[in-house]
Amino acid sequence: YPNYNIMWFLETWMTYNEFQDHVKRLATALHNLGIRKGDVVMMHLGNAFQYVIGYHAITRIGAVASGINPTYQPMEILHQIEIMKPKMLIALDALYEPYIKPIIDKTTIETVIATNIADLAHGLGFKRFLGKLIGKIPKGKIDFPNTVQFMDLLKTEPNVPEVEIDVKTHPATYIMTGGTTGLPKAAVLTHFNVVSNAIQCKYWLGGE
User: Fold this and answer.
1) What is the pLDDT of residue 182?
2) Looking at residue 121, what is its pLDDT?
3) Residue 208: what pLDDT?
């Protein structure tokens, strides 16, 4: 059902076909930038199209996705980065200066992919431009030396490499625990784990 809607955000619908195209383009771009099977790519984003696209693009090429809680303070983020040692960060521009800039020089991050919350929100029309202008849509500056724009990467001609993945042993994502028994730790979810979770959710919510 390529023309059915998969997501809605900021007055914008995205179809399965559009989503798949974005994932393939970003996955190809990540590979072109040197991301390989087993590399960690972290995402410092809110609930937006870019998070879902980023997650699927990262895992599609065998890399490991990990989201940073947007409420984490810089030292909490640094703790997570020190555990996971990512090569790349996909970052929301408005969150970069207060949370990432103070600690990025202490990390393994080599490349930052910058994005604005409204980058794919075409449904806003003129309100998208106006919202950035008057501050209703938050924006910020990412001045990391090796920064590329998320939207530029989506212009990449899709050519996703074939990657062999053992679904029961290869990690898809690292998720930080709550830290109830000390400092938060990274929980490892394999591809088999996350697909099982999706199937469980489908039955829990009454899907067929």
Assistant:
1) 82
2) 87
3) 63
pLDDT, position 137: 80
Residue 196, CA distances (Å) to 20, 22, 109, 125, 163 in order: 21, 24, 31, 38, 21
What is the C-alpha to C-alpha distance for residues 89 and 105, in angstroms, rounded to an integer? 13
Residues with Cβ within 8 Å of 119's Cβ and at least 6 positions away in sequence, in order, are: 49, 50, 150, 151
pLDDT of residue 126: 54
pLDDT given at position 76: 95
**The token pair that represents 121 in the structure block:** 């929100």
Q: Mark the ranges of the chain whose per-residue pLDDT is less than 50.
A: 133
Overall size of the chain counted in residues: 208
Only one residue has tokens 């960060």, namely: 89
Question: Phi then psi for 198, rounded to 5 degrees?
Answer: -65, -40
Structure tokens at 2: 């390529």
Cα distances (Å, whole numbers) of residue 159 to 21, 23, 61, 169? 11, 11, 11, 26
Q: Which residue has the tokens 């090429």?
A: 61
pLDDT at 10: 87
Whole-model pTM above 0.85? yes
